Amino acid sequence: MKKYSLWIIFVYSHLLAPLHSQTFQSRIRLTAFGTAFQPRNPIELLSSSSKIQSLFRCAMQCNQNRQCRTFDYDYLSLICRLFEGELSTGSILYNDTLSSRIGAIFYDATIQSYSSYGQPCQQCGMGVNRYLQCINNTCQCPPNTFWDGQICLNQLYNGSNCNYSLPSCRQDLNLYCSNQTSKCTVLEIGVISTVAMTSVQSSSLMTTYTASSQSQTSTHTATSQSQTSTHTATSQSKTSITTVTSSPVTSIFWAFDNNVNDLYNVYNGVPTSVTYYSPGINGYGTAAQFSYSISSINIPSPYINLQNRSYTFDCWVNPGTTIYSNDYLIFFVCPVQQNDKCMQVLIRYGKPMLTIWYGDCLSSNNITVSVWTHLAFVFDYHASQATLYVNGVVDTVCTSYPSFQGTPNIASWIGCASAVSMYYAGLIDQLSLVTRVKTGLEILDAATLVLYYSFDNNVSADSGPNLINGTGINVAFASGRINQAVMLNTTPAYVTASNLVLFSLLNQPYSFSFWINAYSTINATLVHAWKSTLNNNSCLPILGFTSLGSIVAQKRNSTTIVSIGGPVISPHTWVHVAHTYSPSDGIRLFINGTLVASSYWPKSIASNASTVNIAIGHCINVTLCSCSSGVIIPGQYNGLIDEFRFYSRRLNTSDILALANP
């Protein structure tokens, strides 16, 4: 399909003294004639207008409507249709008899207008910025889209893979992202059931009601903090309607990407002597850098309400060298210095700790100086239990733990509490606070799922917690193992992810998991890695095929490439591939959930590397393809790839079996 590009610039002028002019622009891609757009859901049709005299006027209508991302125009009927879905979210209909063509507005992180996200409305008024709009006095994403940390993306439909830390599902269709399945799911407002019974029990109130005859009816209404229930019972049947009315969950996320704003632009911070260190844990952003007793972040308003509620704090820390002789404070709120009314999330002399004065939940294990570590502090209000996690693994459990009783009437602090002489030195990144109990799987993924590309009609969107969006070159989409897959069927065609921090750490365990459906299995690269500081020993095809079609996994130390060979892979068949490494058991290769090869690989004696980049499906260019490649023959992979995951931990056999049997 041929594509064309044009720039459309609309100029609004006002004859004032002096002359004032406003401009904003968008780049529009045009498909060939004989194409029409079919949205994922008919609800995405914004308008259908007749008697539109030209393609340019149709494009103008789309450009002036912030919700419009795609349009098609029929030259014979003069009908212009506007859609809110981006081109990649729907389908292109091809028919030589069609007299229409499609226009798609270009969206990516390089668009300067997105730098105004969260800024005052002067930055996104009409005629200034068509990508953002003024909502609650700040520049926000248009309706039915969400902010992924870089751009506004279309919200997703029922069954789509989603990121539970973002409002990524269509809320107007009553969808939410399930933290159990990471898929958009219909939110059930009520549950209605009918069962045969002679008595009705309400376990929450420990009370039993018995109806003695068909004509007798017992009705009970119970109101508590979280639930209202109505029960009607006879000796033959019961109809129960339950409506959950729990308190709304507060979600806060400070990414620290050159500012201290909340991702949702509600709990924005005020920094003092805070600098920004690049790269942050996700490679593309920055981390907040604190100097002990000097730096602080104040969260002045609105006040954060943690009174008698469950909550989860999690973040990445890279602490300074004095951690073993000081309290390193992460978060602090203290309306009054009394029992149960002062909260500290901190590292005490190297050990993670959650304190509700004077209840301490303290780890017995030290974390490492100047190394990125993921910490999570979880309090379950209903169980009166606090749990500390280190790098996604349960470290300490404290039972009979007190709930926070402080009234939400005071500012919170990050990295500093001068009232109790506690401070922080080093780096903090991606600090999250939600007023619910995160599951162990959520925390494990936050700590170790570096990136996850589902390839569901979007090559760049990371469905994992780090939002490390990829870049696709000459890619297309086709029916996948799960929903859609990326198709690589030309040369060059590949997907890249850049500046992976955890992949560069010395002796860091890692795992790859993905599906392939190869058109050919001869001389091809599946995963190629290279350091940002490039030399012949700093790049390697990690997974690929030999000249005989066997699949191979590899790893390098400073002098040696260790290769392990698997079977010949049959073309045109979906195959699950997993490759793991850890210093304790070396490298392993799994095909369809079964271990097919392994080899011990000694720990490296080299220092930590610069950040590492990966390419999926190709070795990219002559320089990278010329690296020492072991037994893999570098080249273009032709076929489909789906559900690509990269972890900073060694997946165990049960993990891999689950991924190989979705």
Labels describing this entry:
Apple domain-containing protein; 662 residues; disordered N terminus; Hepatocyte Growth Factor; eight-stranded antiparallel beta sheet; 4 helices; Pan_app; ConA-like_dom_sf; mainly beta; Jelly Rolls; signal
Structure description:
The chain has 662 residues and is mainly β. The protein folds into 4 domains: 13-106, Hepatocyte Growth Factor, CATH 3.50.4; 119-186, no CATH class; 251-437, Jelly Rolls (Sandwich); 448-660, Jelly Rolls (Sandwich). 5% of the residues lie in helices and 43% in strands. The strands form 12 sheets. Strands 21, 23, 24, 26, 31, 32, 33 and 37 form an 8-stranded antiparallel beta sheet that branches. Strands 38, 40, 41, 43, 48, 49, 50 and 52 form an 8-stranded antiparallel beta sheet that branches. Strands 22-25-34-27-28-29-30 form a 7-stranded antiparallel beta sheet, with no helix packed on it. The longest helix has 9 residues, at 55-63. The radius of gyration is 28 Å and the shape is globular. The two termini are 34 Å apart. Residues 32-111 form the Apple domain.
Please give the structural blueprint.
Layout: E1 3-14, E2 20-31, E3 35-38, E4 45-49, H1 55-63, E5 70-74, E6 80-83, E7 91-94, E8 100-105, E9 133-135, E10 138-140, E11 145-147, E12 152-154, E13 175-177, E14 184-186, E15 190-195, E16 199-202, E17 207-210, E18 218-223, E19 227-233, E20 238-244, E21 251-254, E22 270-272, E23 275-277, E24 287-290, E25 296-299, E26 311-319, E27 327-333, E28 343-348, E29 351-356, E30 359-362, E31 373-380, E32 385-390, E33 393-398, E34 412-414, E35 416-417, E36 422-423, E37 426-434, H2 440-448, E38 449-453, E39 471-473, E40 476-479, E41 484-488, E42 494-500, E43 510-518, E44 525-531, E45 539-545, E46 550-556, E47 561-568, E48 575-582, E49 586-591, E50 594-599, E51 612-616, H3 622-625, E52 639-647, H4 653-660
Region (Disordered): 216-237
Signal peptide: 1-21
InterPro entries: ConA-like_dom_sf, Pan_app
